[in-house]
Amino acid sequence: MSSIPVKQTAITSYPKFIGRALWLATEGSFAFYAWMTVLTAVFLVGANAWANQVAGGMITTNMTDHVSWGLYIANFTFCVGLAAGGVMMVIPAYLYDDEEMHKVVIIGEAVAIAAIVMCTLSVVVDLGRPDRFWHLIPGIGKFNWPMSMLTWDVIVLNGYLLINLHVVGYLLYMRYLGRKPNGWWYLPFVFLSIFWAISIHTVTAFLYCGLGGRPFWNSALLAPRFLASAFVSGPAFIILVMRVLRLSTGYTAPASPARTLILIIRVAMTINLLMLVSEIFTPAALERSHVRILACLLVIVGIWIEKGMGLIVPGFIPSTLHEIVEYSPSLLEWKVVAGIWGLGLIILTLSLKLIVNVFTGLKP
């Protein structure tokens, strides 16, 4: 891909960059179109299921007054950790000036953007009256800040999304122009994202453990557990993304970032899953690439179960009246969550395709 001459101003070339970005992100091979078709179909199934839920009410799910949070909030909790885990590429790249990590850190930020979108959608579909979503908008609705922990969650999640959009957009644009990025335009936001990534999961944990009537969550260790598991699932997902990029586009990331992420997973795994499981995972995951990929897949699934359904549902059973009301997600709920993941993977695919083309000059 040819670069725009340096003499052109950023303002006049920006519309051309947007047009070129849309072209690069949506033009591809037969395999690319097949993948996007599958994801679009999954998303439309989820959107149809959510439309039926809105029309019929929350009674169409298996949630009740006793178990009012289920699969949706479980998925929300996991996706928050996935977004926060992306900071594990930012820290070595910018705080420790790891040049190899600099080359791929934008991949972690793209994962964070897609994950935050899935977080937001997971909350929206859990609203019994989505038409009242405007109450969560500062300055428009009854935001109730700073008293409500939910409002803090809205602020940190949307703030983290805006930070990552700015950093990714600016770096891609400068690369497209063939210019060296001006540190004053993005480095402050990079360092802010480190603090912000920790805050999004900490606030989410405080949202749960601050509910006095749910003793299962009333633990001072909930926030550290959330962070430890985020620093496992996030890097594991990024490793899988880099492997898929290598197989599908030929884009080969340096080996050093993957090794760094594996070391982070080993430490976080030790904290989160205790010594026994860590001793099994640690020697197997570092040297053999096929075992490493399998381990990353199992880590992601395990964290989704442990921090998702294994955390949310037991908080409601037994109820505050000590009643046992069983809950299992309905087919409609599974469809909605699948649709959210379908849209999230569409956003991630388009972002990664644009990143690879801009940074390598590969044709779509």
Mean pLDDT: 80
Structural category is mainly alpha
| String of helices and strands | HHHHHHHHHHHH
Overall radius of gyration: 21 Å
| Percentage of β-strand residues | under 5%
Query: Main sheet, how many strands, which sense, barrel?
Result: none
Q: What is the CATH class?
A: Mainly Alpha
Note the overall shape: globular
Unreliable spans are 1-8
What is the number of domains? 1
Number of helices: 12
Number of strands: 0
> What is the CATH superfamily classification?
Formate dehydrogenase/DMSO reductase domain
User: How far apart lie the N and C ends?
Assistant: 10 Å
CATH fold name: Formate dehydrogenase/DMSO reductase fold
Assign a percent range to the helix content.
Answer: over 70%
Which CATH architecture? Up-down Bundle
Question: How would you describe the overall organization of this protein?
Answer:
This protein is mainly α and 364 residues long. The protein has a single domain, classed as Formate dehydrogenase/DMSO reductase fold (Up-down Bundle). It is 72% helix and 0% strand. The chain is built from twelve helices and no strands. The longest helix is centred in the C-terminal third of the chain and has 31 residues, at 255-285. It is globular and about 65 Å long. Mean pLDDT is 80; it is low at 1-8.
